[in-house]
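re the bet — no i am not wrong, look at it urself. input seq straight from the record:
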Amino acid sequence: MRRAGLFAALMLLVVVNVAVLGGVAWNRAGQPAATLRLTERELPLYDSFVRAEENSGLALQLTLYQGSYSPDWLDEQKLRTLGFRPERYDTTDAAEGVRNKQALPRQAWVVLEFDGPAWQLALAESETELASLDGKIQAGESTLQQREYRQESLEQMRQSSSRLLAVDAGTDAAVLRERYPDTTRYLMTRAVIHLWVAPVLSPQEKGDRPRVRGTLQLPVERINVPLQLRAVLQTALGGDVQNRAQRAENAVKLPRYSVVLNVGARHEPWLADIKPLDVAATN
C-alpha cells in the first residue's frame, strides 16, 4: 500500500511537471504576442529575493506607475462593463453603524501602456501642479518647503518612476488587442479588479450618490530571471543584489539595466534579454 501511494504521488508530480512545461512551451511557441523594451524602472529586483540571502534565484517585479493601481478611468461605468453591479452593495451608515456586504473581486484583462500618452499626461499634470505652487506661495496658500518637496517628486518621476500604466480593461483579450494593436507599447495581462463604494458619512452628503471606484492588482508580478541572464543582471547591479536596498536612500535612482520582455500566446511574460545601462548617460 505504501509503495502504491508513493508511486501515485510520483506519477502526480510527473504529470504536473509535464503540464507546466507544456504550458510554458505553448506560451513561447511562435512569434511573441508583444515585445516591450523596459528598464529597471518598470522591472526592479523582486524584494523577497533581496532579503533572502540564502536564495540563489533572481526575479524582477513588474511595477506600474503608482497612480495606475486605482486609475480614474476605472469608474462605475467601466466597472459595470466588467460585470460589477454597484447597486447591490450598500455603504456603511455612519449614524446607525450598519456594515453591509462588499463586492467580490473579479478577473479581467487589463491593457498596460509603456511610455505613451497616459505617461505623458501624468507627467504634464505633475509639472502643472508644481508650476501652480509659485502663485500659491505668493498668496500664502503654500510654502517653499512644499514646493521643494514637489520639485523632488517630479524629478524622481522623470528619472526613476515606472512609465508603465494601466489604460483600459475588458473581458475579451482579442477585442482589447484590436483596440491597442501596437505590440511594442501595449501588453495585456490578467488582473484582479476590486470594487469599492465610498460611504456617505456627513448629513450634507445624504442626498449624494455613493462614489464608486475600482482598484486593480496584477497576479503576475514576479518574473524569474533565466540562468543565462543572471550574470548580466549581477554585473548591472554592481555584482551585489543587495545594492538595490542601498539605492533606496537616494531621491532619484537612475535605471541600471534594460530588459526585453516578451509576452506569449497565453499572455504570460518572460525575460528575453537584459543589458547593463550607462547610468551617467541615462535620462
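see?? Strands lie at 34-39, 59-61, 106-114, 164-170, 186-198, 211-217, 222-224, 257-263, 269-276. told u. also The two ends are 65 Å apart (CA to CA). so pay up
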